[in-house]
Amino acid sequence: MRKALKYVLLGLLLIIALIVILVVINPQFANNHDTPYLNLVSEWQSPPPAEDEILQRVLLFGDAGASSMEPWQASLEKMSTRALISPRKTAAVALGDNIYYMGFPNMEGSQTEWNEDQLESIEHLDAQLQMAKVSGARFYFVPGNHDWYAGELEGMRTHITEYANEHDVSAEFRPLASDTLAAADAINLPGVSLVFVDSSALLTTNEDQLAAAMLSLTNAFDSIRETYPDNLIVVNQHHPLETMGQHAGYMTHFAYWFFIRALDLFTDVSAEDTYHPNYVRIINALDAAMKPYENIIHAGGHDHSLQVFRRPHGHAPEYTIVSGAANTSKLSGVWHTDNTRFALSQEGFIELNVTADGTYLQVFDIHHSEPRAGFWLSF
Known about the structure:
alpha/beta; Purple Acid Phosphatase, chain A, domain 2; eight-stranded mixed sheet; 9 helices; 21% strand
C-alpha cells in the first residue's frame, strides 16, 4: 500500500513539475497574428485625410490598467503624440479595466492614507490621466469588469474629477450615473457623437433592467439623430460585441489556457466570454437597439489585442472594434473570422479620423512610427 501511495505521489509531483515547466515556457499551440492581418473588402486605402479635413480625431484604447508612469507606458506616450497634433479636436476613450487587478482601492478600517500597494494601483490610472495633462485633449474613461471588482467606481470617478480639476484638464468617468443599470449617456462633438455604456452593469441585469437600459440607449440615439443627423455614432463600452481572441475561447498559449481552466474549477469564468448565454443575451439586446439606426460603430476592449470587424448583416453597428492592447504585459493571442478586416496582437491603439466625407481608421503599435494599417470605412 505504501509503495502504491509512493508511486501516486511521485506521479502527482511529475505532473505538477510538467505544468510548472509548461507555464514558464508558455508554448504557443495555436496561430496568432503577431504581425498585421489585413483583409479589406468594401473598404479602400486611398490616402488619409489632410489634417485640416479632420473634424474630430478619436483615440480608442483599453485595458491599460497595468500601465507604468516611470518609464511612461509606450502606447500612452504614442497616443499623446497623436493627440498633440490637434488637441482641440481630439478625444480619447479608455475602454475599461483602468486599474488591474481589483480596480480603484478603498480605505480599510481606520486607514487614513493610501499604502504602497494602493498607491501603485492608483498610479496605473494616473499614467493614463497624464495623457490629458501632456496633450490637452479630452479623455473619457468607461468601467470594465476589473474596475468593478473592488466596488469603488465612485472612488475612481472622484479621483478622475479631482485630477482634472487639479491639473486643469478635460477628463471624465462615464457613464455619468452609476446608481442605475440603465445608465447610458452621450457627448456630441464635431462629426461624431460618443455614447458611453457600462457593459459590466448590463451583464448583471434581469430582463426588465435590460429593457430599461436599452430604452436609455435608444433615447440617446434618438436625441443624437434629431440634433446631429449626420454624426458618426461610436458606442463605447468594455465588452466587445465580436472578437476572435481569448474571450471568444480562442487561446494561443499554454499559460493562459491553464490559468482559465484552473479558474473554471472555482468560478464561472466564462461569464466574461462572448459565448456565455448571459453575454449572448447582452450582445443580442445591443444589436437590436442599434439596428434601426445608421452610421454606428461599436468599440470595446476586454480582449488584449487590436481588431476591426465589418458586420455582414446590413444594419448597425456596421463596424465593431476591439482595442484592448494598451499594455504589452497583458497581450493575448488573436486570429480572424470572415468578418475581420484587421487583427494584431501588439501593444497599441486604434484611431478614427472623422471627416465630412467619411471616417478613416488607423491602427498604431508601439514598434513602428507609421500606422500598421489605414483605410476608409464603408457605410
